[in-house]
């Protein structure tokens, strides 16, 4: 479990200030020749030193409080695989009212030439900016003259008007760090909740008083100077099946609790859920949008088309919104436009669409609520404090009888009641217009299920002809439908599929229920492939794992401290039946297997046999849980290793004498 602790500011010991930045450009021999074996023998690059500091100041131009954040890093690069760590990206926030600015950027590369360090300064023209999305701007640059053994160094300052979160400091990154130090200078009238998340512990921390650090409205303010140090930090390695790395990387987070104003009054920022409920339900871009049932009043007879039961009505409304409003690929908790304009424009962000869905469901006489959540890539929502900034998405929750259904109308190919995997992330907060809010688990309502059935016949020319039928349900069907829709037609999809399957020929395709998303997606193809070459027609080689063969283990760490999150349980079955023209005997085959994960977590079954001139191969791969604890990691790793090893083997058949 992630360790979480809070430090109450303003209860400090007074001591000498010991936090100090290191001098720029002063590369030492022991840094250039640093032995990576001391921290990680596999490292391609290592952070030798990292220092950051953040402090509040008055912006001379605007007279407003801003945070000045300074970041200084020195990195040793060992080989070409480490060159990519000389490509630096600095994200900053921007919107119509607030923007962060990067200033005082400098960067250098140091190489040893004839026994002396030679510095190559980065040209300022090498720096460029890129708009990542509506709210994020990226400042990018690449250090010059990178070679095996180079030491790079860069520093910059960010001026930020975003005071609520002060400045997050990530101790852990993509490469190991020898030392990382952060100093937060916080005015004494600002009270922050401070938390260290992740699995690595601080090596040291100190709290000090820094006298008269700031002057507000003519009043001198003392600051708390908080120093946090972490040493010998392992690299954070991202693997498959994990949510946002920010959930697990060791980092220091700040959230503003309250401010003691210079006039003696107090302004609170840490709210109760009652405060947040009122704020959301009264907001014109949230609660007011939930109340726009009148917009759909005249449309409802046509939408419902005689539906009488509530589940049918909910389905009809859900399908109507999916068809009427196209998602513009922006997330958000708040609507950008009013519901009438959204319907006219037929486009909107997540909140535009799903708040309109809530209004329409309400107009149909159904009991409906909103659920705010944080997507998987955004990290876990903060459940200790009601912080709205930790949520970035909203969906609908419709209650019918004793069942509830979570709905997201941004994805036309999703069936009723199934959320996109991006939304399956811990818990969401249910917002009701009349009742207090509450937490709800976000779980996949369906498994990801795929069944392959191949029925074929071996011909005298050594080729197997037959029919393969694939049935997909749940997320498997959703993902396959999305894949098909990328192409101009299903015929084009089949053409590309046939090109990818170099040893198998497809013909006479039949794909059913592409747009009937509440039904299984069924694909049917006639196939042809060779079972032996012309050298020895008495022998047949067949690899029965040509369908979704597992060639790579997604779990390669010696240990993993965070959960394996698949998003949903899954079930894959492969059934192969090939009729042989005469009697064959089974000489070699993959070993029959029946292996399981602990506590009924999953299983893999494989059986192959010949009976009555028929070759039968059956496989089942099941994962019965959506989330596996860190303790299950090594079992999963071994589980995959055994499957991969066994799937390397072919079936060898010989004509019986």
UniProtKB/TrEMBL annotation:
Name of the featured protein: DUF3857 domain-containing protein
Gene3D superfamilies linked to this entry: 2.60.120.1130, 2.60.40.3140, 3.10.620.30
Native organism: Pedobacter frigiditerrae
UniProt keyword Membrane present: no
Domain DUF3857: 69-200
UniProt-listed InterPro entries: DUF3857, Transglutaminase-like
Pfam family, one: DUF3857
Keywords: Signal
Keyword Calcium: no
Residues in the signal sequence: 1-19
Domain Transglutaminase-like: 300-377
């Amino acid at each position: 479990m992630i360790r979480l602790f809070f430090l109450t500011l303003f209860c400090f010991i007074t001591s000498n200030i010991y936090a100090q930045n290191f001098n720029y450009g002063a590369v030492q021999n022991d840094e250039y020749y640093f032995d990576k074996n001391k921290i990680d023998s596999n490292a391609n690059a290592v952070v030798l030193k990292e220092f950051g500091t953040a402090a509040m100041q008055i912006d001379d131009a605007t007279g407003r409080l801003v945070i000045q954040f300074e970041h200084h890093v020195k990195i040793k690069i060992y080989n070409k695989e480490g060159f990519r760590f000389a490509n630096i990206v600095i994200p900053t926030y921007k919107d119509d009212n607030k923007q962060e600015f990067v200033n005082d950027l400098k960067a250098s590369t140091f190489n040893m030439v004839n026994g002396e360090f030679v510095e190559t300064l980065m040209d300022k023209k090498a720096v460029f900016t890129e708009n990542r999305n509506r709210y994020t701007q990226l400042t990018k640059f690449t250090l010059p003259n990178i070679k095996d053994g180079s030491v790079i160094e860069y520093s910059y300052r960010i001026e930020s008007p975003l005071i609520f979160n002060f400045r997050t400091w990530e101790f852990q990154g993509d490469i190991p760090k020898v030392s990382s130090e952060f100093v937060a200078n916080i005015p004494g009238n600002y009270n922050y909740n401070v938390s260290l998340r992740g699995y690595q512990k601080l090596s040291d921390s100190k709290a000090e008083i820094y006298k008269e650090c700031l002057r507000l409205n003519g009043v001198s303010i003392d600051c708390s100077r908080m120093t946090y140090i972490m040493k010998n930090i392992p690299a954070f390695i991202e693997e498959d099946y994990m949510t946002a790395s920010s959930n697990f990387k060791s980092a220091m987070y700040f959230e503003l609790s309250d401010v003691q104003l210079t006039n003696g009054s107090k302004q609170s920022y840490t709210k109760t859920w009652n405060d947040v409920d009122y704020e959301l339900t009264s907001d014109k871009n949230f609660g007011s949008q939930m109340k726009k049932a009148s917009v759909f009043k005249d449309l409802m007879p046509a939408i419902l088309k005689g539906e009488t039961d509530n589940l049918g009505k909910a389905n009809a409304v859900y399908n109507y919104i999916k068809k009427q409003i196209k998602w513009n690929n922006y997330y958000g908790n708040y609507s950008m436009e009013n519901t009438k304009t959204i319907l006219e424009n037929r486009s909107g962000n997540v909140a535009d669409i799903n708040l309109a869905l809530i209004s329409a469901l309400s107009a149909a006489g159904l009991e409906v609520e909103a659920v705010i959540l944080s997507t998987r890539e955004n990290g876990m929502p903060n459940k200790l404090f009601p912080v709205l900034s930790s949520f970035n998405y909203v969906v609908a929750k419709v209650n019918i009888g004793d069942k509830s259904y979570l709905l997201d109308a941004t994805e036309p190919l999703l069936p009723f009641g199934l959320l996109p995997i991006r939304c399956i992330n811990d818990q969401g907060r249910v917002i009701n217009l009349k009742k207090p809010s509450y937490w709800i688990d976000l779980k996949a309502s369906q498994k990801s299920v795929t069944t392959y059935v191949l029925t074929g016949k071996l011909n005298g020319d050594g080729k197997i002809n037959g029919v393969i039928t694939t049935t997909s349900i749940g997320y498997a069907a959703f993902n396959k439908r999305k894949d098909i829709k990328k192409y101009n037609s299903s015929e084009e999809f089949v053409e590309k599929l046939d090109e990818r399957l170099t040893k198998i020929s497809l013909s006479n395709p039949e794909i059913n229920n592409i747009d009937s998303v509440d039904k299984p997606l069924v694909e049917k193809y006639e196939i042809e492939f060779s079972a032996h070459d012309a050298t020895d027609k008495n022998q047949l080689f067949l690899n029965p794992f040509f369908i979704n063969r597992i060639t790579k283990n997604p779990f390669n760490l010696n240990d993993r401290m965070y959960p394996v999150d698949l998003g949903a349980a899954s079930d894959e079955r492969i059934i192969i039946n090939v009729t042989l023209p005469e009697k064959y005997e089974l000489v070699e085959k993959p070993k029959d297997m029946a292996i399981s994960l602990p506590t009924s977590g999953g299983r893999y079954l494989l059986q192959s046999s010949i009976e009555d001139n028929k070759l039968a191969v059956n496989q089942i791969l099941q994962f019965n849980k959506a989330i596996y604890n860190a303790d299950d990691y090594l079992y999963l790793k071994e589980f995959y290793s055994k499957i991969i090893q066994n799937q390397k083997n072919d079936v060898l058949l010989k004509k019986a004498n």
